[in-house]
Every structure is written in structure tokens, then in C-alpha cells.
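Input C-alpha cells:
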């Protein structure tokens, strides 16, 4: 039996966070971004978000994370938000 696998690789070079204004569920947004080394979410509008579960999950190369200006007033679920980010050495909250 011959199995053909189609693998799609997406490389994130830039991300305009200003367009995320009315998001209410950010769970698994950065799921398994294992090559991601730095993430600045300081301009992220999180005012309407109620779910950040596993938002930054298994980003094993992530060393720097900026979450300053995060508004978590409406968030109900934040469990495992930065789960398995084993290289994380700088966190700005």
C-alpha cells in the first residue's frame, strides 16, 4: 500500500495584530509553533477574549514573550496558556 502525505509548512514572517479587535477565543492560536523564538503581543487587543487556553502551546524554541498590556478581565480560561515553552527565559507581563 502506498501512502502519500501532503505536508503544508507555513512560515510566519510577520503578523499584524491590529486587525484582531473583536476576537473572543484565542485558544491554540500559536499551537506547536516550534520554530518561533520571539513573540511580542503587547499590541494585541484582548479586551473581548474569554478563552486563552493553550494559546501559546508547545513553542519549544520561544525564548522571549511580551504580554504587557494584556487585558484579562473577561478571560475565563487561561489554563496551559504557555504550556511546554521550555526555552522561555524572558517574560514581560
Amino acid at each position: 500500500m502506498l501512502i502519500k502525505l501532503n505536508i503544508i509548512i507555513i512560515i510566519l514572517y510577520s503578523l499584524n495584530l491590529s486587525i484582531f479587535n473583536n476576537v473572543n477565543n484565542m485558544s491554540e492560536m500559536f499551537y506547536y509553533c516550534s520554530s518561533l523564538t520571539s513573540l511580542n503581543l503587547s499590541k494585541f487587543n484582548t479586551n473581548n477574549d474569554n478563552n486563552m487556553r493553550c494559546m501559546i502551546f508547545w513553542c519549544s524554541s520561544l525564548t522571549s514573550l511580551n504580554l504587557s498590556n494584556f487585558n484579562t478581565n473577561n478571560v475565563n480560561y487561561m489554563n496551559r496558556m504557555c504550556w511546554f515553552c521550555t526555552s522561555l527565559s524572558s517574560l514581560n507581563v
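The first strand starts at residue 30 and ends at 31. Strands lie at 30-31, 38-40, 56-57, 64-66, 90-92.
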